[in-house]
Amino acid sequence: MASIIPRASARLRLSASSSRVCNDCRRPLTTSFAQRQQQQPTTSQHESQDAKSTHFGFQTVAEEQKAGRVAGVFSSVAATYDTMNDLMSLGIHRLWKDHFVRSLNPGTRSRESQKILDIAGGTGDIAFRLLDHATTINHDSQTSVLVSDINPDMLAEGRKRFSVSPYKAAGRVAFLEANAEDLSAINDNSIDLYTVAFGIRNFTHKQKALAEAYRVLKPGGVFACLEFTPQLRNPLFNAVYKRWSFGAIPLIGQVVAADRDSYQYLVESIEKFPSQEEFAGMIRKAGFLLPGQIGGAEDEGVKAWEDLTFGVAAIHKGVKPV
Questions:
Q1: Dihedral sign, CA of 69, 118, 13, 16?
Q2: What is the membrane topology here (predicted)?
Q3: pLDDT digits over 217-263, tens only?
Q4: Can you tell me the distance from the alpha carbon of 320 to that of 194, in angstroms, rounded to the nearest whole number?
Q5: What are the structural domain ranges in the chain?
Q6: Quick one: which of 165, 237, 246, 297 has the most CB atoms within 10 Å?
Q7: Could you give the CA distance from residue 307 to residue 321 in angstroms, rounded to a whole number?
């Protein structure tokens, strides 16, 4: 496992999966998301002229404020995040994640194990699937996953989940609190597979995060992203989906998690994410080869992404050139 452990950094905290969960990673969740947002400074029109601004859902905020606001959202929803995903997607997110992992076929039958980095994976949902597939399908007992998340509360949920798993004793999982836009604790060319599921839309500088993904991946390594899409191809289905998203999901958040505002943000953040075409262009800009480019001349008949469930979500992949 030593080869996947990041370099020491004063700005990052790493914890191998163990029964000792750092107490200061479990901030009380009694303060609502809305109350925390009210405590943060807002961006006036004059301030936005002097500082770079970005979106936080449908709000415009200074770039330096977004990470803190997103952290507030996920601290608020950490304990109920997976349950809410089931309710919001009617369980379909599980099928998407299973398909995502199967398409990557993690694990290897060779002697050299794979090193996987799961970004924004705090609760360990994707990491579990990756390790289960590697173990049961490819009979690989060596491949390991480094779960990275900017939010300590989400990581605490992941540590709790893995504390009763066989992967803990085998040393096949570790946790890293880090910003995906600055993975300086991880060596260049050290990762075989980089995954991010339903997380990249919350990043302030997505292109910078893609550049970091490119840096840490080995030549031939794979970038894989599962994310919601802002617009569905079918206008009628798109209208029905938007009504469900903006009407039902915040209400479910209020009833189940007593936090309407956080889930209102999560819905709005989908609307602000680039289209499939735009995001594929960003992946290419970072230096990755897209599906259809790999192995020689570009194949215009091969799509750079895979739409799921009428385009509600999409899988994007890129390969770092050898």
A1: positive
A2: Peripheral membrane protein
A3: 999 999 999 999 999 989 999 999 999 999 999 998 888 888 888 88
A4: 11
A5: 91-230+272-319
A6: 165
A7: 24
Q: Is 43 helix (H, G, I), strand (E, B) or coil?
A: coil
What CATH number does the domain located at 91-230+272-319 have?
Answer: 3.40.50.150
pLDDT at position 221? 97
| Angle (nearest 5°) at CA 121 between 181 and 162 | 140
Token code pair at residue 42: 């807002």
No. of H helices and E strands in the chain?
12, 10
Tokens describing residue 12:
């990052």
Cα 55 to Cα 7, 48, 118, 146: the distances in Å are: 32, 12, 25, 29
pTM of the model: 0.80
Q: What span, in angstroms and rounded, lies between the C-alpha atoms of 193 and 313?
A: 20
Residues 6+ positions from 84 with CB-CB distance below 8 Å: 77, 252, 253, 256, 257, 263
Binding residue numbers? 123, 149, 179-180
Tokens 């009628």 belong to residue: 236
CA atoms within 13 A on the CB side of 317: 19
Q: Report how far residue 146's alpha carbon sits from residue 173's, in angstroms, rounded to the nearest whole number.
A: 6
Q: Which residues are annotated as a binding site for S-adenosyl-L-methionine?
A: 123, 149, 179-180
Question: Residue 279 in contact with residue 255, Cβ under 8 Å?
Answer: no
- SS3 call for 279: helix
Dist CA 244 CA 113 (whole Å)? 43
Residues 196, 134: Cα–Cα separation, whole Å: 18
DSSP state for residue 289 in the 8-state scheme: B
- The pLDDT value recorded for residue 11 is 38
